[in-house]
Specification:
- The chain has 26 helices and eight strands.
- The protein has helices at residues 3-30, 42-54, 65-90, 101-131, 144-172, 183-191, 197-221, 229-238, 269-277, 283-287, 289-292, 299-318, 338-343, 349-353, 360-373, 382-392, 428-432, 434-449, 466-470, 474-490, 501-510, 523-531, 562-572, 606-615, 627-639, 650-658, and strands at residues 422-425, 454-455, 495-498, 519-522, 546-548, 577-578, 621-624, 646-649.
- Helix 25 links the parallel strand 7 (621-624) and strand 8.
- It folds into three domains: 3-30 and 62-230, Up-down Bundle (Fumarate Reductase Cytochrome B subunit), CATH 1.20.950; 264-373, Fumarate Reductase Iron-sulfur Protein, Chain B, domain 2 (Orthogonal Bundle); 383-658, no CATH class.
- The protein is 53% helix and 4% strand.
- It is mainly α.
Length: 662
C-alpha cells in the first residue's frame, strides 16, 4: 500500500460515512410531512424530468441561464471523471486507462473540454455576483447565502485547476505522453518544462491532494447547505405536480381533524422536499407582483422559512419529543408573517419561474386555511365576503333572483339539456357587476350570431367558490363545490362556457377533485374558434393602439395565450401590442387570490403598477379577457387620470365588429 493510500483510504471512508449520514438526516426530516401520492403517471413524470432537470428548460429561458446549463452538464460529465479519481485513489491499478484506447482518449478529451467550460462558467458566475448582480440575487458575500455561493464556486474552480495541473505535471514528468486529446494539460506541461523534477513532483502531489480534499469537502458541504438542491433537484422535478399547481388538494372534514398547515408536520412530504430543493436563485422573488410593489411577501423567503423551521424542529417533532413550532408568526426566522400570507395574489408567477418546480402557492394557501378555519384570523374586510358567500352565494350579498336580470331583453334562456349545447356559467361579476354585465350581453350576442345553443341557470346559478378557496375558506368552498357538481349532474350539463378565468379554472381544474367530468371552455377560446377563422366580419373596429393584458388564471394557470389575441386581431385587423411583461411573464392586475375583495395597505397598488407599465406604450385601448382585470384596469386608469384610455373585454370588441355599419 502506498503512502497516498494509507492517508487517503481512512479520509475517504470517514467522508463517505459523513456524507451518507448527512443525507440520511436531511431526507429523514422530509418524512415528517403528510403523505401525498407523487408517483403516478411515471412516463409523464420522466418526460418532465428530462425537460426541466436535464434540458434545464426554465433555466435557459433567461440569458444568463446558459451559464448554469454549462455548469450543470459539466457536473454531470465530471461525475465520471471524479468517480474514477476516487476509485484510482483507493485502487491505483483500477482506472479508465483499462478501457480501449479510442474510448479512453475520447473521454480524456471530453473531460478537458468540459473542465475548461466549467472553469470559464465559474469565473463568469463570480464576476456576475461581484460586479453586475441582478437585484433579486443574494449577492452579499458577507451573508451566509452569498458567502456559501463563493465557497462553492471556489471549490469548483480549485477542482478544475487541480485537474489540469495534475495532468500537466504528469506529462512534464514523462508519466503521460503529450497528446492532442489532452490539449490544455499538454500546453501547461510545455510551460512547466524548465521546472525541476522535484518541483514537478511537488506540483503533482499537491494537485492530487488538493483535488481529493476539495472533492470530499464539496461532497460533504452539499447536504448541509442550500446547494443540497444539487442532490434533490432531479427527484423534485420527477415528483412535480402533474395538475395545475394553483389547485390545492382537498381537505377531509372529519371530527377532531386540524385544518390547514400551521407547522411543518402539517405540510406534505413534497412541500418539505421543496424546501431543501430551493436554489435561492431569486427568480420567484423577482417576478412576484406583491414583492415588486413593496409588500411583505417574498416567495423565496416563505420556502426558506419552512426549511429553517424543519431543520430546527423536524427531528423533535418526528420523535414525538415536542409539538412543531408554528410556521406562521411575526418577526422570527422559520415563520412567515400573516401579512405576507395575505399579500399573495396566487398569480402563479413564482410557480412558472422556478427552475426546479417548487410549489410556493399551495403552501401559502394551506397556511391561509389554518388561519381561517382554525383561528378565524383574517383581514376584517373578508368577513362580509364570507357571510355573503354562505348566505347568498355571491360576494356582494345580492339576492339570487337578480342573477338573470342582465338578459331581460333576450327572453327566457333557461338551460335545457335537450335544446342547449352549452351551459353559459355567467359568474358573479358577469351577473351582478354593472360594468361586466355589458360583457355578458356582448358574449350572449356573439353566441347567438354564431348559432350556438346555450342556456343559463338564472337564480339557481351558484358562485363557483374560487375566492373562497384561494382565501383559505375551504370548508365553505367544499360544501359549495359538492352542491354545484350535484346541480350540474342533475341538469345533465355536458359543456360549460365561462367568461371569467377564475370560474373557468375552478370548474375545469378544482372541480375535477369532486368528480366533475364536463368540457369547460373559456369564452376567448370559443369565440376565437367561431369568429377568428378567417370569416369576413361586417366591419373592423378602430380602437387605435390596442394593448393586450394577460389574465393570470387564463394564461399561466391554463396556458391560454393565443386565443384572446386572435379575437382582437380578427376584430381590429391588427395584432395587438404587448406589455413589456406579457404571456408567461405577465404581471398580475392584483385581484387574484381573493385580493379583489381586500385593500392594499402596504407599498404601491399592484393594479396601478400594471397600468403604468401599459401607459408607457401610449395605448388607446387595453383589451382584457377577465372581469377582475377589467375592473382593476379601469380603476387604475382613473387613479392615473388616464381615462382617455378605454378598457374593453375581447367579447365587447368582437361584438362591435359583428354589428353592421350604420
Amino acid at each position: 500500500m502506498s503512502l497516498n493510500q494509507m492517508f487517503f483510504i481512512p479520509i475517504f471512508i470517514a467522508s463517505s460515512l459523513l456524507f451518507a449520514f448527512s443525507c440520511y438526516q436531511r431526507l429523514r426530516l422530509v418524512a415528517v410531512g403528510t403523505s401525498e401520492i407523487r408517483t403516478d403517471r411515471p412516463i409523464e413524470r420522466l418526460r418532465g424530468t428530462l425537460a426541466f432537470a436535464f434540458a434545464q428548460k426554465r433555466v435557459v429561458q433567461r440569458p444568463y441561464g446558459i451559464n448554469h446549463f454549462v455548469l450543470f452538464w459539466a457536473f454531470m460529465v465530471l461525475v465520471l471523471a471524479n468517480g474514477e479519481f476516487l476509485v484510482a485513489g483507493l485502487v491505483p491499478d483500477l482506472n479508465l486507462g483499462l478501457l480501449p484506447a479510442p474510448l479512453y482518449h475520447a473521454l480524456l478529451l471530453a473531460f478537458e473540454i468540459v473542465s475548461a467550460l466549467a472553469l470559464f462558467s465559474v469565473i463568469l458566475a463570480a464576476a456576475r455576483r461581484l460586479f453586475f448582480p441582478p437585484d433579486y440575487l443574494a449577492n452579499d458575500y458577507a451573508s451566509p447565502g452569498g458567502a456559501e455561493a463563493f465557497v462553492i464556486l471556489g471549490f469548483i474552480a480549485t477542482l478544475m485547476i487541480a485537474y489540469f495541473l495534475l495532468h500537466a505535471a504528469e506529462i512534464a514528468l514523462g508519466q503521460r505522453a503529450p497528446a492532442a486529446y489532452m490539449p490544455i494539460a499538454s500546453g501547461l506541461a510545455s510551460a512547466l518544462g524548465p521546472v525541476s523534477q522535484g518541483t514537478l513532483e511537488t506540483i503533482a502531489a499537491a494537485s492530487w491532494w488538493a483535488h481529493a480534499l476539495v472533492l470530499l469537502a464539496f461532497m460533504n458541504l452539499l447536504p448541509r447547505s442550500k446547494h443540497m438542491h444539487i442532490l434533490t433537484a432531479i427527484p423534485n422535478c420527477f415528483f412535480r405536480s402533474l395538475e395545475k399547481t394553483g389547485t390545492v388538494p382537498r381537505e377531509r372534514f372529519e371530527k377532531g381533524e386540524r385544518f390547514g398547515a400551521d407547522s411543518v408536520d402539517r405540510l406534505s412530504w413534497k412541500d418539505l422536499l421543496d424546501s431543501f430543493t430551493c436554489t435561492e436563485c431569486g427568480r420567484c422573488q423577482d417576478l412576484c407582483p406583491a414583492r415588486r410593489t413593496g409588500k411583505a411577501l417574498n416567495p423565496r423567503r416563505v420556502i426558506h422559512d419552512i426549511k429553517v423551521n424543519l431543520l430546527e424542529n423536524g427531528a423533535s417533532v418526528r420523535d414525538g419529543r415536542r409539538e412543531s413550532p408554528p410556521l406562521i408568526g411575526e418577526g422570527k426566522e422559520g415563520a412567515t408573517s400573516e401579512e405576507a400570507l395575505w399579500d399573495c395574489t396566487t398569480c402563479g408567477a413564482c410557480l412558472g419561474a422556478c427552475p426546479v418546480l417548487i410549489e410556493h402557492t399551495p403552501k401559502i394557501l394551506k397556511m391561509r386555511r389554518h388561519l381561517v378555519q382554525m383561528e378565524a384570523r383574517f383581514p376584517e374586510e373578508l368577513l362580509n365576503l364570507f357571510e355573503n358567500m354562505e348566505q347568498r352565494s355571491n360576494p356582494w350579498g345580492i339576492a339570487p333572483s337578480e342573477r338573470a336580470k342582465w338578459c331581460g331583453q333576450l327572453g327566457d334562456r333557461s338551460f335545457d339539456p335537450e335544446t342547449c349545447e352549452y351551459l353559459f356559467f355567467v359568474g358573479c361579476a358577469g351577473a351582478f357587476d354593472t360594468r361586466n354585465k355589458h360583457v355578458t350581453v356582448a358574449l350572449a350576442t356573439l353566441l347567438d350570431s354564431a348559432g350556438v345553443t346555450w342556456g343559463i341557470l338564472g337564480k339557481d346559478e351558484p358562485c363557483c367558490g374560487d375566492s373562497l378557496r384561494r382565501l383559505g375558506n375551504e370548508y365553505v368552498f367544499d360544501r359549495m363545490a359538492r352542491q354545484n357538481v350535484e346541480l350540474f349532474r342533475e341538469k345533465k350539463v355536458r359543456k360549460i362556457i365561462t367568461q371569467c378565468p377564475h370560474c373557468f379554472s375552478t370548474l375545469k381544474n378544482d372541480y375535477r377533485q369532486y368528480g366533475l367530468e364536463v368540457e369547460v371552455i373559456h369564452h376567448s377560446r370559443l369565440i376565437a374558434d367561431l369568429f377568428a377563422d378567417g370569416r369576413k366580419l361586417p366591419r373592423q373596429v378602430e380602437l387605435g393602439k390596442v394593448l393586450f393584458h394577460d389574465s393570470c388564471y387564463l394564461g399561466r394557470h391554463n396556458d391560454l395565450y393565443d386565443a384572446p389575441r386572435r379575437v382582437v386581431q380578427a376584430a381590429t385587423g391588427r395584432v395587438p401590442a404587448e406589455f413589456i411583461r406579457n404571456r408567461e411573464n405577465s404581471f398580475c392586475c392584483g385581484a387574484g387570490g381573493g385580493r379583489m375583495w381586500m385593500e392594499e395597505l402596504t407599498g404601491s397598488r399592484i393594479n396601478l403598477d400594471r397600468v403604468r407599465q401599459g401607459l408607457v406604450g401610449k395605448p388607446d385601448t387595453i383589451c382584457v379577457s377577465c372581469p377582475y382585470c377589467l375592473t382593476m384596469m379601469e380603476d387604475g386608469l382613473k387613479d392615473e387620470q388616464a381615462e382617455n384610455v378605454a378598457v374593453k373585454d375581447i367579447a365587447e370588441v368582437l361584438a362591435e365588429a359583428m354589428r353592421p355599419e350604420a
